[in-house]
Amino acid sequence: MYAVKPSEHMLPILVLLLVSLVPPAISAFDRLRVDLTHVDAGRNFTKFELLQRMALRSRARGAMLAPKAAGGSANSISTTDVPVSPNAGEYTIGVSIGTPAQPLLLILDTGSDLVWTQCQPCLSCFDQSFPLYDPSQSSTYSRLACSSKLCQALPLSACHAQCLYLYSYGDNSTTVGTLASEAFTFGSANNVTVPNLGFGCGFLNGGIFNNESGIAGFGRGPLSLISQLGVGKFSYCFISYDDDDSKSSALMLGSAANLNGSSTNFRSTPFIMNPSRPTFYYLSLDGITVGTTRLPIPKSAFALQQIGTGGVIIDSGTSITQLTTVAYKLVRSAFLSQVKLPVANSTAEGFDLCFSLPSSPSAKVDVPKLIFHFEGADMDLPRDNYLPQDSSVGLMCLVMFDSGGKISIIGNFQQQNMHIVYDLDDQKLSFAPARCDQL
Fold this sequence. Notes:
439 residues; mainly beta; six-stranded mixed beta barrel; four-stranded antiparallel β-sheet; 10% helix; protease; hydrolase
């Protein structure tokens, strides 16, 4: 999801999800673990079917992001261990809200800020796994005043004896509701309850959802969960998309987000601020190597322009990495020339470049390296993060796309089995290879 600035004619109505007027002590988040649910869990998709579903969602998300991040009208509001489950596209986090607690399933989204869930009574709501949150059944629910800082931070709001909001996203999903505060409970084993988090209580909602209740914004703006909690860093470690459903990934906050002290393989690269898109986590990508060849990609392919167009973002909500056309064509051409396998007719399979695997399962398949050269840090990707094999269909496909626009997106498929740390205090991204199912 990507938050966009609503049109002037859209009726302002507000919801504040996850705002903390009295931020809790960071120590309260130590070792907190929250389970995340796989969107396709238990649905018996094959490995390649999961990839195809991921591809469809990525193309749709990327197509909406490209024009929104190009500087047009798009704009968003300018220590815990949380388990996450990959869902072949998105990652969701299970939390509870209210007193007594009511369960929610929220999309983890580093591309937006607002935290919100569907609420009763609802004028229009999409299907979700859990019953709708009912604020009338909670003793800790409280509407936020129009004069509150969180209400003032909304991109579009209205005051009718309460703070109302309208918040929309790049894929045309929207939520309209009341800005409020509530107690949120995180954790699967050692639960931690945080009072007075600002969130949106949505009574008019629509868009593309897969049984989730709403969205947990992890962007850089003041409405996001991270900003409200006041933690200086967070990290995640995504398990392989085809791991069994009994395993989970981890989202960690505060001191728990640090890379393993014994790791000597961690790298760091600075975040870049784009004033026209302050929510996104922009990085400086200097180049790409395939095999032993550093590709002749012009610097302009990844440059963030002064008018706010272009650039490279890292995103939890986009499944598959998407590069600008000039960069993608060079990457594709390099794999085409270096992989010594016949090219498959992949048009119907949903991928731009696939190779036919040898008929013998014991045959060795040589795969060239793929390295992203960020400023001060090289990301050497595991082969399964860009050329996964599926022997059941006899294919090995390049899991990467042409963005069709000026922006490039580092998706979560390429981040599997890597510990990714967002250091907000030092404004940098750190990463290291990891066994995420053992973290």
